Amino acid sequence: MTPHSKFAGRTALVTGGASGLGRAMAEALAATGASLVLFDLNHAQARGLASDLKAKHWIRAEAVEGSVTNSDDVARGCRTAIELTGRLDIVMNNAGIVGNAPSIDLDEATWRRVIDVNLTGVFLVAQAAARIMIPQGGGSIVNTTSMYGVAAAPGRASYCASKAGVVGLTKVLAIEWAASGVRVNAIGPGYVRTPLTEQAEAEGKLDFDALARRIPAGRLAMPAEIADIALFLASDAAAYITGQTLVADGGWTSYSYL
User: Fold this and answer.
1) Catalytic site positions
2) Does pTM top 0.90 for this prediction?
3) Which CATH number fits domain 3-190+234-247: 3.40.50.720, 2.40.70.10, 3.10.590.10, 3.40.50.620?
């Protein structure tokens, strides 16, 4: 099997697929032959990426505008996969937001919004996908959590709570659906160079040099590195792996010295 054909004949739904880690996952899937549904609030950006990937890799790809917090939008995204190829084999459950603030100042609306997108959204997408995958005979769901789903940091109460919730949810769904051939795993990235983090650095909210000094690997990850791990979890090479969270943080959570 050539690298391009690794996922040939399979269809993947990528939430938050228009930019950042979702874009990297979509690009990696397309390069290995998968058909794609890119689900994102930014429809123009998702549509442009779908067009580019179709032209570059000769695959099928569609963009769907929607929010992971809206079950009707999620159902429409999954239906689009069925309309595209008749299957839904892979879900990269990636959409997420941040809402950092000192806990004493964190407003209720921000708390609820972060939990709604990062945790409830992951559940709604996984549930809708499983309703297709179980009758179909199997599939793979890869949830994006964070190293802050297994560790903590000040000023990130809603984010850490939501991502820790994804770790627990991943285990529950994995054991419920394993006998039906549906695997559910999670990837927990550390700090990654994405347009969002680069913008945060430009605004003085992140210091890449300081972060690199704290990371044992001495650098931030690139999006393609995280996408490669997500593809491994979705692939047949991980056929006996389910219910796990693979943390990819350059050693951050293993290193207790500040």
Assistant:
1) 159
2) yes
3) 3.40.50.720
